[in-house]
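dude i think i finally got it to work??
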Amino acid sequence: MLARLHARIANVRADFTHKLTTRLCRENQGVVIEDLNVKGMLANERLARAISDLGFGMFCLQMEYKGKCYGVWLVLADRWDPSSRLCSVCGWENEMLALKDREWTCPQCGTRHDRDINAALNLKRLATATALPVASPSGNGGATAERVSAVVGKVTPVRDECAPHSGQEEHSAPVCALS
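look at this
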């Protein structure tokens, strides 16, 4: 009975991870994932069980192979990138930001930041600047797309350039040959 319960919990978690990664790859041109120090996070005894239950490794593996299948840019942000410490408005870095600080105000521009939203904005900028095409500022309505040359931080773009389609087609099945 206990073995069946554990198997059911494992299946529910795997199902959720598969559905989430598939949805993320179908609905987005690019996804950015922060390379976290999971081993270091597991040292916290209060959070270790909850963190290990999440399955960050499996999530990243599924995003990588599904990103290749759907033609999605997967950007892995460096774990030392100051995504939550960097002001998303002016670029000032808050060196004194501790993990317990959930909100902070930038002394440079006066903007009040929520730590997680600010990190998401900085990671979005990082992904856009490194992987995604942007509209040309030439004034032609964005007819030509070009890559942004300025890289904000160290990233590792993971993409299969031979992907058969962009992954944005609504009713097409992914064509993917996994080896």
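Strands lie at 30-34, 73-77, 103-105, 112-114, 134-135, 145-146, 155-158.
im so relieved honestly
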